[in-house]
Amino acid sequence: MAIFDDPFDAERDLPGCVCGQHRSASEHEQAALALRCEPADSDERRYERVVASAVMRAVFPHDATRRAFLKSVGASTALAALSQFFPLKTATELFADTGAPEKKDLKVGFIPITCATPIIMAAPLGFYAKHELNVEVVKTAGWAVIRDKTINKEYDASHMLAPMPIAITLGLGAQPIPFAVPAIENINGQGITLALKHKDRRNPKDWKGMKFAIPFDYSMHNYLLRYYLAEHGLDPDTDVQLRAVPPPEMVANLRADNIDGFLAPDNVCQRAIYDGVGFLHTLSKEIWDGHPCCSFSASREFIAGAPNSFAALTRAIVDATAFASKAENRKQIAEAIAPANYINAPVTVLEQVLTGTYADGLGGIKTDPKRVDFDPFPWQSFAVWMLTQMKRWGQIKGDIDYKTVAEQVYLATDTNKLMAEMGLTPPASAYKSFSVMGKTFDPDKPDDYLASFKIRRAS
Amino acid sequence: MSASLRPRAAIVSVLLFIVFIGVWHLATRSSASVATMSPEYAKLMGAQATEGKSAMPGPLDVGAKLWEHLRRPFYDNGPNDKGLGIQLGYSIARVGLGYLLAVIIAIPLGFLVGMSPLISRALDPFIQILKPISPLAWMPLALYTIKDSGLSAIFVIFICSVWPMLINTAFGVASVRKEWINVARTLEVGTIRRAFTVILPAAAPTILTGMRISIGIAWLVIVAAEMLVGGTGIGYFVWNEWNNLSITNVIIAIFLIGLVGMLLDQILARFAHLVTFPE
């Protein structure tokens, strides 16, 4: 939620929760909800605010002091006082001013799943146009094809699973080509869906011998499912069968009894429920709340060749992501991305995914507004975690310099700058600790983390 | 007897069709048993879960949808959603290009192979190995080297249609009756003239048969190729509707694929008819 914070809010709590800005988790939730209900600011106002906030923070670097000052004089007086000795208006104009894009007609590939929401909705809702780009979003048949088409420059940038740009850069399953991720698409938003016949086999310890589908080998889905199974004592390579299946075929395979379940991106999970063939065992959010899933990525070559186009594209995506992160916009988004030209799915299904009020497939209605969420910041610690899992399951052999790779692929610094320019509040560091199924991950000690797992491939 | 065979066959065809539609209709009726669920829950679920609607659409659903498509075959709602007419157009254009390329290469090469026993022997192992490869197996290699998905699809069409034409041309040329060639020799007809005035007309029916086999295979392959690379074409349409689990549209696409395939075949059959000669 750090992105949407208002530094002029004297009431905001000091560090103490997941994001480090609230006293407790429940307060964090509340604040998050409250912030979402704020009316969307105009760009100019946001730019203005961020410049002001940067100055404010520079003048009062300590949260406590700033708070005391704001409380005593009030936010508007503080702003007026600041403009007295700092030309806020000029600074704002400087911030918003960027070079014209080198290439305006761009092609961006996507896979029709709700993870791609910001990329897709930016077309019908005009986010690309707002940043002076004429973008054609092209639906693509599978992850390998989207990878090849992006490498072949048929697409200027595309929707990829978060680990894919890392894998491509490292040359896993392809020749090494440097790729970069300026923005994460979505966080959470996946789920483990099982066939209805397993509705009484909810304990993963009983899943020995079952067949599961995942969308791709280099996917968060693969790593999360393996992690989940291993935490329950199953070796994902020997105790169960994992198959890479394109998402649209998962529901059909589940119906045909070819697989017992899948860890898949949404709308696929909800679609299985909608068609009465499966039920939601758990949301991926329960495995790791706030995990990244898909990313927006481009080759280094494109970035170097058209830096302004790339910046404008990233700005459009970050803009769309900020819009998508607000709960009140979700219904409108569901309608915008449902037609055959985009995701091509029933609006009801997309609405259930995006609003988080959904049928669980067993006759109950559940509500979880964070079922899927959108947060563009490409945390480099996410990349480090993915690298540990790639190593854990033998996709990477030998030693690896985690942070160098993470910093090369996940463009936290650039995104940080762009977000600041756009009036959003980027986090101060690109590494954050998080916990996966109750186990804390320290991005500074990836090797220790890796060694702490009992079930893993020998490297 | 043979005069009355045609109407009788037509009657049997119509009857078979009616039986087929009837069985289809009965087989896809809603099943009665539906689990009870609260109305709020039912609102979030699809018709298959709430009404016990069969996952397979009935003939009436398909008919209605087909009518909808036929009424506006050329709409264009953006890069990922175009009318069936446009999609079929893309597929036919791809098949046409790949096929034309195959004709340009296979027929002269076939002539060469058929006229020269040496080249025939020399090329034989290559042809034998390349012929049985599934055209789609070329796809990853094509994508990787050509670096363009549209051209890759055309290449795949080319590679699958080249072999039957090549082999049939070679066979047709090689099996031209020796007497005709000997007569040409006696009359001191030059090699080029002999190829065009004696061998080509004699081998034409066999060559056309090869071309007819090729167009059939090309049309089979384009659907699969387009499902792989996506973008446009009838194969992409099938994939896109499969994505939405819309079996109705998939059935319509299957029907149209069959129809176009038949038309292509009939066109070549007509050509074949033109070049056949009574002996």
Portion of residues within helices of chain B: over 70%
Q: In terms of per-residue confidence, which ranges of chain A show pLDDT below 50 for 5 or more consecutive residues? A: 14-18, 32-41
Distance between the termini of chain B: 28 Å
Shape category of chain A:
globular
Helix content of chain A: 40-55%
Level-1 CATH class name of the domain at 105-186 and 292-345 and 374-433 in chain A: Alpha Beta
Describe the largest sheet of chain A: 5 strands, mixed
Mean pLDDT of chain B: 87
Largest sheet of chain B: none
**What's the overall geometry of chain B?**
elongated
Q: What is the average of the pLDDT values of chain A?
A: 83
CATH topology of the domain at 105-186 and 292-345 and 374-433 in chain A: D-Maltodextrin-Binding Protein, domain 2
Q: Main interface pair? A: A-B, 39 and 35 residues
Describe it.
The complex is a heterodimer of chains A (459) and B (279). Chain A is an alpha/beta fold and 459 residues long. Among the domains of chain A are: 25-96, no CATH class; 105-186 and 292-345 and 374-433, Periplasmic binding protein-like II (D-Maltodextrin-Binding Protein, domain 2). Chain A is 42% helix and 15% strand. In chain A, the strands form five sheets. Chain A has a five-stranded mixed sheet with strand order 2-1-3-11-4, sandwiched between helices. Chain A is globular. Helices cover 77% and strands 0% of the residues of chain B. Chain B has 279 residues and is mostly helical. Chain B is elongated and about 90 Å long. Chains A and B meet through β2, α8, α11, α12 and α16 of A and α2, α10 and α11 of B.
